[in-house]
Amino acid sequence: MTAPKSYEAIAPHAVAFLGLGVMGHPMAGHLARAGHRVTVYNRTAAKAADWVREFGGRAAQTPREAAAEADIVFACVGNDADLRAVTLGADGAFDGMRRGTVFVDHTTASADIARELAAAAAGRGFDFVDAPVSGGNLGAVNGTLTVMCGGSAEGFARIQPVAMAYAKAVTLLGEAGAGQLAKMVNQIAIAGLVQGLAEAIAFGQKAGLDMGAVLGVIGKGAAQSWQMDNRGPTMVEDRFDFGFAVDWMRKDLGLCLAEAQRNGARLPVTALVDQFYADVQAMGGRRLDTSSLIKRLR
After folding, report:
1. How far apart are CA 179 and CA 156, in angstroms?
2. Is residue 130 domain-shared with residue 188, that is, in the same domain?
3. Are residues 208 and 129 in the same domain?
């Protein structure tokens, strides 16, 4: 961990965490450091072993084994298919969970899978909360994520104080699927913002301005944003080997565009920026940070 985190004093819980990627690894670490008894599972077992060496707890061989003794099961995997595999697949977590427990999904996935899994969980006597996050890897490392939740008020009340171990805000926004829909709103807003910032910086550089100085000035006014503060300087320096990858953003924007087709929303800017990200992928930037949109303009 690179930043101090104060943990709320709550009773320790037995928890499981499925998926130890760039987000899940530090999130599960915060749960351990907050005093919870953590069992982890990762498809690549070596990553789970590395986590145990760093934080303690134990590693399970399957999602079902990880979930068997847990009060709350957390997951952060890649997409709908990965989520279905760790919940409903062979040796999936749902087969190991006890009645009265809660499954919390931090994957950015579709609202449809959230509703499907919420119904499956209810039929087995436990709760499901879809809870995608915003704040990126830095937010996960520092324990300052924003968590957008959909599910029952009762299930949310049980998981909220525990999830605060890695978050600055955990908010219930509606029934199952509402968390995923809110995350789509977040990604739609970010897509247009990053493209606008890229155009502004590229324009200023073409005009011969000292863009470090310019950002310092306009960042104190109406143009200020998290993206400007955190990604503007690295755009100027042409550094993109960190952060939220273009491949992940395209997955998220695909979810947004598919949902818009269903609900009739019009997303012309989002569709355009999605194609700009396809250009960055074609340039070899699949794993670059989303701020690499500026590379198209240089």
Report:
1. 12
2. no
3. no
Residue with tokens 């009762």: 154
Q: Which of 107, 140, 175 is the last residue of a domain?
A: 175
For 135, phi and psi rounded to 5 degrees?
Answer: 135, -10
In CATH, what number is assigned to the domain containing residue 187? 1.10.1040.10
What pLDDT score does 3 carry? 52
With beta carbons less than 8 A apart as the criterion, state whether 39 and 58 touch: yes
Q: What's the rounded Cα separation, in Å, for the pair 190 and 298? A: 21
Q: Which structural domain, as residue segments, surrounds residue 276?
A: 181-297
Q: What is the model's pLDDT at position 22?
A: 95
Would strands 37-41 and 14-18 be described as parallel, antiparallel, or unpaired? parallel
183 catalytic residue (yes or no) = yes
Instruction: For residue 2, tell me if it sits in a domain.
Output: no
Q: What is the pLDDT of residues 10-35, one digit of tens each?
A: 999 999 999 999 999 999 999 999 99
What is d(CA 159, CA 101) in angstroms, rounded to the nearest whole number?
A: 10
Q: How confident is the model at residue 273 (pLDDT cuts 50, 70, 90)?
A: very high
Give the separation between CA 130 and CA 175, rounded to whole angstroms: 9
Residues 140, 72: Cα–Cα separation, whole Å: 19
**Catalytic residue (choose from 5, 47, 168, 183):** 183
pLDDT single digits (tens) 205-248: 999 999 999 999 999 999 999 999 999 999 999 999 998 999 99
- C-alpha 22/C-alpha 61 separation (Å) is 20
